[in-house]
Amino acid sequence: MLFLLRRQVIYLRRFKQLQTVNLAGNPISQLEEYRTFVIAYLSNLEYLDYRLVDQATVSFSVCKSV
Question: Strand pairing of 20-21 and 47-48?
């Protein structure tokens, strides 16, 4: 399942202006590291699953993914 998450997120990286993503209800959203991984790899996101992505969350996600 983690492989599928990586593939989907890496595919979305090509959309440089992408600011909103909703994967709520998608089975990958049940993974423990889902939110952290998506925010770390989609750096321009402002909203993920209808929730605002704040700078503290971005910083945490980037540090955790390294």
Answer: parallel
Burial of 52 (0-12, 13-18, 19+ CB in 10 A): exposed
- For CA atoms 57, 5, 1, 23, give the dihedral sign: positive
Over the stretch 2-21, which tens digit does the pLDDT of each residue have? Answer: 777 788 889 999 999 999 99
Tally of domains in the chain: 1
**pTM to 2 decimal places:** 0.81
Q: Is the dihedral of CA 23, 65, 62, 7 positive or negative?
A: negative
Pairing of strands 51-52, 47-48: antiparallel
Question: What is the extent of the structural domain holding 17?
Answer: 2-65
